[in-house]
Amino acid sequence: MSLGQQLAPHLPFLRRYGRALTGSQTQGDRYVRATLEAIVAAPAEFPRDVDPRLGLYRMFQAIWSSANYDETADEASVDPQADAEAIARARLARMTPLSRQALLLTAMEGFTPEDAAYLIDVDPNEVESLVAEALTEIEKQTRSRVLIIEDEPIIAMDIETIVRDLGHDVTGVAVTRDEAVALAMEDRPGLVLADIQLADDSSGIDAVKDILAQFAVPVIFITAFPERLLTGERPEPTFLITKPFQRSTVKAAISQALFFDSATVPA
Length: 267
Prior knowledge:
By secondary structure, the chain is of the alpha/beta class. The chain has helices at residues 3-7, 11-22, 25-41, 52-66, 71-78, 84-94, 98-108, 113-120, 124-139, 153-165, 177-186, 204-212, 247-261; strands at 145-149, 169-174, 191-195, 219-223, 239-242.
């Protein structure tokens, strides 16, 4: 089996990680492309002594750490009047800290602490403290109001419990597209958690599009088929949770979405 064939099944999930890491589909997918280009350009440098998925993420982390894509320079070139130092400060504020990288790699991507240590190039003993640091930061995060769009009662109750335990308020639980839009208009949320397939065969994606047409709000999609929404070929979710999910996964996704939503510079 060729290296490309070995890596292909893992690309959707690398896109998920890249988007969560950058808070942007565009920027996350750009880093994934850069990773693939680096592998094609120098296949001998791909780590062969580890699992292909681990090697793929390792290459991605190298691209991310080296900051081959200087977004600050890109913005300054678009707007010559922009204060480059101010842009740099704003971008730095939006950078996902090492502690959150450790949390995303373990809670969202399912890597072991040992694997996460390898990926972010720290001592394995540091990973648990980094994750604890991220969780402490989350506890200090501004509370939000969350709309849940989910037609399966047990899952909806589970999500609602997680959201409330994190200190957020739930504005409502919708089971159809129309109900979701009505609830959003009645009580504007600061975050939306949306399933893809709803009770009346309507789409959570369409519900979110209707809501976003009225006002901007960060969205996390929940699906059992993440690869369908992580192709990189069209406008797709920035934040995505895979069913069945772990409590830690939901917590990490919510905190990361709100982390970027609190920033003042658009992705």
